[in-house]
Write a sequence for this structure.
């Protein structure tokens, strides 16, 4: 095996162990978060703040998310809640739910594992949002947050360059000025 092949193999092993390490850390933090009410890590639906406010790790319209997407979604949510656990007011349930929306969209776009995500796929996601959502900018911001988290934790083989969502999906011109609505 050449040195290059060994480095590639080491990189792949590191990516997989990185996700596993993040999952172990998230499970520990999950146990001590009081914001998640009567939940188990393995549940596909978590109660946030109240029993009636739920975070669903499911496809749009129901159905199970692919395992890696569900795992990264749970890790991401726990990370958000953990980093803001000392806030006077917790995040609104709608805000936390919006953070896992990109994972549901990716499942709809037939992503089965994190390795399916690359720069071309990110660009396709932006086009997908533009074509299917009346106001795609808010979802696009969430997509960028998840991508930034994935990039910062080196969960992919390649770094994904994100776009300025307000320019790519918002109703602004090249200089960032809000465009008038045509009637």
């Amino acid at each position: 095996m050449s040195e290059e092949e060994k480095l590639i193999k080491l990189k792949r092993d590191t990516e997989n162990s990185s996700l596993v390490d993040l999952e172990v850390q998230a499970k520990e933090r999950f146990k001590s978060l009081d914001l998640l009410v009567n939940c188990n890590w393995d549940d596909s639906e978590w109660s946030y703040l109240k029993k009636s406010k739920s975070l669903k790790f499911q496809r749009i319209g129901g159905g199970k998310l692919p395992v890696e997407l569900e795992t990264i979604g749970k890790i991401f949510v726990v990370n958000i809640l953990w980093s803001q656990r000392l806030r006077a007011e917790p995040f609104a349930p709608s805000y936390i739910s919006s953070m896992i929306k990109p994972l549901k969209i990716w499942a709809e776009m037939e992503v089965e594992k994190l390795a399916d995500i690359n720069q071309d796929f990110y660009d396709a996601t932006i086009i997908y949002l533009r074509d299917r959502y009346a106001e795609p900018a808010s979802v696009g911001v969430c997509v960028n947050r998840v991508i930034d988290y994935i990039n910062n934790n080196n969960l992919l083989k390649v770094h994904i360059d994100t776009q300025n969502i307000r320019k790519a999906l918002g109703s602004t011109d090249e200089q960032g000025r809000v465009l008038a609505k045509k009637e």
About this structure: The two ends are 64 Å apart (CA to CA).
